[in-house]
Amino acid sequence: MQKEIIDYIEENKEKHYRIAYSYVKNQEDALDIIQDTIVKALKYESSLKNREYLGTWFCRILINTCKTHLNKKNKVIYLNEMEDTPMPTFDQDQHLDIEEAMKHLAPHEQEVILLRFYQGLELQEVADVTEKNISTVKSTLYRTMKKLKKLLEG
Amino acid sequence: MKNSNEQIESQIKEYMEQIEIPDTLDECVKKSIEIGKLKNKRVINMTRWMRNMTTSVAVLGLAFVGTANLSPTFAKSMSEIPVLSGLVKVVTFGQYDYADENYEANIKAPLIDGMKNEALQAHLNQKYLQENKKLYEAFKTEIAGMKELGKEGHLGTEAGFEIKTDNGEVLSIARYVENTAASASTQVYYDTIDKKNEVLITLPSLFKDGQYVEVISEYIKNEMKKEMKEDENKVYWVEDSEEGVEGFKQIGNEQSFYINENGKLVIAFEEYEVAPGYMGNVEFEIPTEVIQESLVSNAYIK
């Protein structure tokens, strides 16, 4: 099992780094997260009961490490993470590029979007990683896509 | 329709792909895998080693471990050390040194001297010596491997020791091993000796029964939570769910420990054992009142 985990880590390191980076927005912290995630995964490899879930299992450790890192570093505390961010107000004809648009998403919205479309996880897997139920994930994804569309189109 | 779902999806991918990958990522991943493997092995090996250790400590009183198979250099250095009879002490003993442009090793072993219980003294000294020999050999193998790959990199191994406590009753020695490559990792091992009776103190030997495991673990868990609450930079893996991996449950029967200058029991954890890497080697001083009821006596712990 250890070899499979290591192969998986090597194959996906860039993807994982980018996900970590998207949380912390700086190289040093992202590398720290990568290190902690890998060490944790290998140390507790026995908690992975079924190799089929390797991807979701690893992502969960990664995402949780990112969140713990952010919580400890950030002075900002989201009172209710589940609350959707309001639509920003701007001129009617103004539209944003994707980078700007992403900034307008709440952390849990960004998370779902990235896990689904960048990490390529299935909805059920996203639900497993984020420890939410699938219908919550579905509706978050649906609403967030709508929101992104609006932001991009102005 | 300019922004269909598919278009947004591909924009998201593009947005992520433009996050630059640092050159150091490869090395960071490799190093982390190494540390992870080591930690994993250590979890398994430590328990096995601890089991053996308990048996060997039990027979130690009877067995005489000779010094005959120690290296000549060791024997020579021994004779150069002035011996103060009847005084248990630790003398520095530089053992392996290696340095060139990229690689550096500095491995020192503590050498206990002046014990009447020669069996115990020889046992400990020999253990230290052999561990260091292994370290040095591992270091050499690693250098050879790196040279073979034509890789330039910094590699360092530093091992040494620190006297945590040396008073009338006990001598606590901490030995550390620091490996430096892309990032550093440190391992620390402790031995505590009863200077009067000249025996190695084990954690279970301090207590009347096995209850101490629970008592100490509960104290540490509360302490971890308290520290995290007070200082947001501190992280301990104390909860199960948070990381998707098992959190700290309880200490081992033979958890690393030493007795500090104030006669307090200090429980030590390895790097990554209960906290992320940046927290280092974590220690908890256990207030004596917490364990008072379980203690055999207050001879060592005040």
SSE order of chain A, one letter for each helix or strand: HHHHHHH
**CATH topology value of the largest domain in chain B:** Heat Shock Protein 90
Helix share, percent of chain A: 55-70%
Shape of chain A: globular
Number of domains of chain B: 2
Largest sheet of chain A, if any?
none
Structural class of chain B: alpha+beta
- What is the radius of gyration of chain A computed over CA atoms, rounded to a whole number of angstroms? 16 Å
The poorly predicted ranges of chain B are 42-86
> How many structural units, i.e. domains of chain A?
2
Strand order of the largest sheet of chain B: 1-2-3-4-5-6
Radius of gyration of chain B: 24 Å
Describe this protein's structure.
Chain A folds into 2 domains: 1-77, Rna Polymerase Sigma Factor, Chain: A (Orthogonal Bundle); 79-154, Arc Repressor Mutant, subunit A (Orthogonal Bundle), CATH 1.10.10.10. Helix content of chain A is 69%, strand content 0%. Chain A has 7 helices and no strands. Chain A has helices at residues 2-24, 27-43, 54-73, 98-103, 107-118, 123-130, 134-153. Chain B has a 6-stranded mixed sheet, with helices on one face. In chain B, strands 7-8-9 form a 3-stranded antiparallel sheet. Chain B has 2 domains: 64-200, Heat Shock Protein 90 (2-Layer Sandwich); 204-294, Heat-shock cognate protein, ATPase (Actin, Chain A, domain 4). Chain B has helices spanning 5-17, 25-60, 72-80, 118-148, 212-230, 288-291, and strands at residues 89-99, 103-113, 155-166, 170-180, 184-194, 199-200, 257-259, 265-268, 283-286. Chains A and B meet through helix 1, helix 2, helix 3, helix 4 and helix 5 of A and helix 1 and helix 2 of B.
Summarize the structure.
Chain A is mostly helical. Helix content of chain A is 69%, strand content 0%.
Identify the notable features of this structure and list them briefly.
heterodimer; A: 154 residues; mainly alpha; 2 domains; globular; B: 302 residues; alpha+beta; Heat Shock Protein 90; Actin, Chain A, domain 4; 6-stranded mixed β-sheet; 3-stranded antiparallel β-sheet; 23% strand; flat
